[in-house]
TrEMBL record:
Record-stated family: Belongs to the sigma-70 factor family. ECF subfamily.
GO molecular function terms attached to this record: DNA binding; sigma factor activity
InterPro entries named in the record: RNA_pol_sigma-70-like, RNA_pol_sigma-70_dom, RNA_pol_sigma70_r2, RNA_pol_sigma70_r4_t2, RNA_pol_sigma_r2, RNA_pol_sigma_r3/r4-like, WH-like_DNA-bd_sf
Organism: Corynebacterium falsenii
Organism lineage: Bacteria, Bacillati, Actinomycetota, Actinomycetes, Mycobacteriales
Occurrences of domain RNA polymerase sigma-70 region (ranges): 47-113
Keywords tagged on the record: DNA-binding, Sigma factor, Transcription, Transcription regulation
Protein name from the UniProt record: Sigma-70 family RNA polymerase sigma factor
Transmembrane segments: none
GO biological process, one term: DNA-templated transcription initiation
RNA polymerase sigma factor 70 region 4 type domain location: 146-198
PANTHER family recorded: ECF RNA POLYMERASE SIGMA FACTOR SIGK, RNA POLYMERASE ECF-TYPE SIGMA FACTO
Amino acid sequence: MGSRSPSAAVPDSPGGLVPFMDTDSVSSDADILSHVSRGDREAFAELYDRFGDRVYGVCLKVLANRDLAADVAQDVWLQIWHNSSRFDATLGTASGWVLRQAHSKAVDAVRSAEASRRRLHVVGQREAVVRPETPADIYADAEEAQSVRTCLDSLTELQRQAVNLAYYRGMTGREIAAQTGSGLSAIKTRIRDGMLALRRCLASYE
């Protein structure tokens, strides 16, 4: 079975006392859940023996990743340990309740992963350095290229470094920040101010 036993992660029952349950005398899943809700670790182990494979199977079907399914299944069992008192036999079977916990937890994991990917995509777009044009695009011939070099030399060292890395090496703001050890906002400011100064300088050659 791919799932890991959750017993090590399950806390002791209140007061450190673990109620005894003779599992041989308990025949229904609902009875076992009732004992689990009272902190019976033996009942919990019995429930795991009955449903461990199926809980893992539900998680694997939703997540399609064995390692992730095993991790989520572990969370499912902790959730069952803490929330077993919420089971209501008048609303359905114990087995259905257990497997719904697994399905719900797995779906939540998928949604969380998708939300994280969307956030990273948005952040990446925001942090990408927008380069509408490069100095070489603005002044292409040899004479004007010399003007560009002269104006680049007139920038501060930090502005010149940021502009060169962004426009001549094609690096993003995040990459420049990582290479130089500076903050991303500082890099964006240097590029913006550097390009404004460069434009003003180049305008004087027109």
